[in-house]
Amino acid sequence: MLSVIAVLPVAAVWIVGVRRGRFSDRDLSVRSERPAFLAVALAAAIALAGIAHGLGAPRVILELTVAGAVAAALVTLSTVAGLKVSGHVAVPVCVVVMLQASWFRGPWPFLLMAVAVSWARVHEGRHTSREVLAGWGVAGATGIFTRLVA
Fold it and tell me: What pLDDT digit, counting tens, does each position of 82-120 carry?
């Protein structure tokens, strides 16, 4: 239920923005279109973390909501600085970092998925190698930060 609170506003802004022509395409390829969208995502992630904390959610949920807020902040800052970050890559990498110390099977399935997604995003021309590496960097920093403070 909490994830719906965070995802719904972001999805609505994206869908309405694409349909009404506020965004040029589904990937927000035009740099000037990204900050407003990411500001909504950041606000939703912060709201989700606040609600989860206020409801006394279990530690794992709090860690995930903090990770979402930290990642949204880092992606927004990177984007404002002029760097497009691959979210498709960042998600599985963040999962790898967060599960590395706690999942009994290890991070290998997620790591393999992150490598495969990284290759696919560059191969399909959706991102450059630099943008994929930025996704790895944002996700790694998010995961490490979250494991340290949450």
Answer: 888 888 888 788 777 777 656 666 677 778 888 999 999
Annotate 67-107 with DSSP letters as a single string. HHHHHHHHHHHHHHTT----HHHHHHHHHHHHHHTT-TT-S
Q: How many CB atoms lie within 10 A of CB 17?
A: 18
* Burial of 148 from C-beta contacts in 10 A (0-12 / 13-18 / 19+): exposed
Distance CA 95, CA 64 (A): 9
pTM of the predicted model as reported, rounded to 2 decimal places: 0.77
* Nearest alpha-carbon partner for 63 in 73, 76, 49: 49
Contact 135, 85 (CB under 8 A): yes
**How many structural domains are present in the chain?**
1
pLDDT single digits (tens) 57-71: 888 888 888 888 888
What is the extent of the structural domain holding 112?
Answer: 2-149
Q: Enumerate long-range contacts of 7-12, CB under 8 Å, 24 or more apart.
A: 7/44, 9/40, 9/43, 9/44, 10/37, 10/40, 10/41, 10/44
Residues 147 and 99 sit within 8 Å (Cβ to Cβ): no
